[in-house]
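Example A, followed by Example B.
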Amino acid sequence: MNARPIQPGDEVLTTDRELALLRELIRAASSGPGVEPLAAAAARMITAATGTDVCFVHVLDDSDRSLTLTGATPPFDQEVGKIRLPLGEGISGWVASHREPVVISRDKESDPRYRPFESLRGSDFTSMVSVPMETDPGGLVGVLNVHTVADRDFTARDVELLLVIGRLIAGAMHQARLHRQLVARERAHENFVEQVIQAQEIERRRLAGDIHDGISQRLVTLSYRLDAASRAVGSDPAVVAEQLGMARELVDLTLGEARAAISGLRPPVLDDLGLAGGLASLARSVGQLDVDVELTDVRLPDHIELALYRIAQECLQNVVKHAQASNARLTFTADDARAKLEIIDNGRGFDTFEHPLGADEMGGYGLLSMAERAEIVGGRLNIRSRPGSGTTVTATIPLPSAP
């Protein structure tokens, strides 16, 4: 490795060329809200303006835990979206974590921070500069890299120019990311609303069927039995006793059906055992999965208990259906400020970047419904997962202050 301190040197760009580059970047940033088109345009402009051979634009993903290649000069544009780098790994990950530029004039493979990607043909390039892309309202947005085939002594002015370009791109990309997240959220919310309406209609039909086919019919029969008993009063005590006995059985059956219908709306276990007891009972009911529990026995407002119970119910169902897990851990804690529910499984996991919240491929309605339940009561759902490393679902809900 030959990484040298940045020293003043010859200027790569004249003032006119710098202004022309900035105008092109501003035009690209103003052309639309897409993150990928902006990154691709910036990569092409930067290589042309700085006389470098290739430029890579890595953008921080929505979880703020890794970088994804979002723009590159051809032929590496085919790798956009395929290259991911956790923060702290590789040169780009180091720059993202430390928010400092890195300049390597030659032999970058000997730098202990360097991590090669075969598809990016790192060995073909000897010199590089990597700078953070930051913006005041959004913080770190990503990392900008330029590489050259021949050895090159990048100057302080080169690095400063790339930092300026990075800040300019970061502002536009921050807005593009916010727009993308908003559009995705609105689309997911629309899908969720449709699913909720459909679920409500299904639930109404189920309740109507239960009431019509079960409760209503039993009440009609109960009325018949009481009428028969009434007619037999004073003439045949045995008939009265028989009809009243049958009526009592019908009352018991009707009450059972009514309780079953009501339990579909609010689990009676919450009223009987509280949230901790309800979660313990729920964990025991999942026969296909070994669920360990750690629960704080505390009562919360009814609407928060119901939201957390339904989130746990949906999450455990998802684990059974999709995770191929053998074990899960359910933890519930609460203090004066917030309640926290966490479910960790040892299943196959998934890529949260390729399958974000609400994606159809991951049975998105289940994930999204959990998120919406948390948000309805003022909380937040967080999902952490990696292929082969299981999944962690955390619901955090603020608690109202005691009067």
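Example B, a separate protein, is given below in the same form.
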Amino acid sequence: MARLSMHFWRLLACVVLAGLAACAGPQSLTSQVSSYGSWPEGRKPGRYVFERLPSQQAQPDQQDQLEAAAQPALAAAGFELVAQADKADVTVQVGTRVRIDQRARYYDPFWGPYGPWHPGVGGWWGGGGRGGLSFSMAMEPPYVQMTVDLLIRDRKGNQVLYETHARYDRLGAADDRLLPYLFESAMKDFPYQAVSPRAVTVIIPADSR
């Protein structure tokens, strides 16, 4: 028994260490990306300024955070942020949407998850000549959809040149730390439209989590 216990704890320690090693390494994020528009052939990305809708102007701190999350992806695509609008070639609008669905998991006495004869969980209860039907519910982790939107317009003609969206689904909670990687996914194929929607995978460095 002592040998068996020692083997069990060694095995458990190996599993924990393996999990920690996996967490320490880079991870990937796969989102669904849809891109539209007709970026002029041969046109370089150029300089840009952010443009805010009235509703976004009412929440400056939140919009500052969102625009900061989009800047690395825009820089990687070749865009340069400038302070003055008259120095910009294009304007960029960014937005985000979060949808959270709280789902319930039902324990049906006839259909599962344990079936009608599992004692003490659901279904028919036995013992002492008593019988009954049990039906219970447990809440699962929320189902979250995080979406970022990015729109590029020609500053002079106000023509939409490129529109792209990235959506990431997960269980748990929304995490603002993922926003830069969603924008990276959204701009991954710039200036091409590519297939929409399509799965795009980016790497999250270990030191960014």
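On Example B: Residues 72 and 180 are 7 Å apart (CA to CA).
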